Amino acid sequence: MAEFRGRSHVQHLGNAILCRAGASGLRFTRDRALVARMGVDHILAHVRLSGRSRVEAGGAAQDCGPGDICLLDLSRPLAAQSTDYQALTVVLPRGLFGADQAMLDALHGQVIRGASPFGRMLNDHLRALDAHAPGFSERESGAAARATAVLLGAAVSGLPAAERNAQAPDGAPLLLALRRFIEAELASPDLNAETLGRQFGISRSALYRLFVPLGGVAGYIRQRRLARAYRDLAAGDGRGARISEVAYRWGFESPAHFAQAFRFAYGHAPRDVRAQGPAEAAPGRSDRIEAWGDFYDWVLKLAA
């Protein structure tokens, strides 16, 4: 196997992160377990300066070449392989997209072609951001990040339907409010379709239609609870809370039910994650990822 080479320069813009990176050819998978372990749900835009990649996300595969801009939702799984490359990447918190947050469900895996007029303009914007960001004041950094979010949101909403891997479901603003409520109430044993219907004044049938792209109401709630449980187990050193405590904390009816759902979602038992500890918990996690701890800490602390 050829030796891997890579180098990156990362700039923190207060409410965004900008990274210029280059590396030899690689292949990686960001599976559901790693998504849960890292706890990052931000939006990433990646513009190729050189090299080619193939990205599998949102149930489809897209090729990305020089000048193309690949958009990814870091709360969802993906896989990619790439030749040797140079690239610019910007990471933005979801809240920075404002009214365009309703479009984020359709964003994952989209590619804005660099040859299109809007793609050329986005290329110019991201390259200028990389060139001038080191001299920005805090206020200027925030303004530049907000402008980048506006441009990316407009790019996604303007893509022809035939070029989209997924459509934002009807009622996307309501769905966004529902998901925020679910996230805040995950530990509540009363969180279910009935509670959501009463809280938002929506019928059961309408609620179910909204959540079809996300695996259904109960499936989505279970997925988010499992992700929280995974993070709790992986953050410990094997001497923390009992698995049963984690199960009940996140609304599972019994440790056995929790273990069954956990194994189905992640391919291994909760005790395996807790026994491995924080440095090894995510499958496929390498020393190279561990060296990026500060980077992920920056991402998690981004605020709109």
Automatic annotation (TrEMBL):
Q: Which UniProt keywords apply?
A: DNA-binding, Transcription, Transcription regulation
User: Entry's SUPFAM superfamilies?
Assistant: Homeodomain-like
Protein name per the record: AraC-type DNA-binding protein
* PANTHER family linked: ARAC SUBFAMILY, HTH-TYPE TRANSCRIPTIONAL ACTIVATOR RHAS-RELATED
Domain HTH araC/xylS-type, first and last residues per copy: 176-276
Q: Which domain of life is it from?
A: Bacteria
| One family name in Pfam for this protein | AraC_binding_2
Please list the GO terms describing molecular function.
DNA-binding transcription factor activity; sequence-specific DNA binding
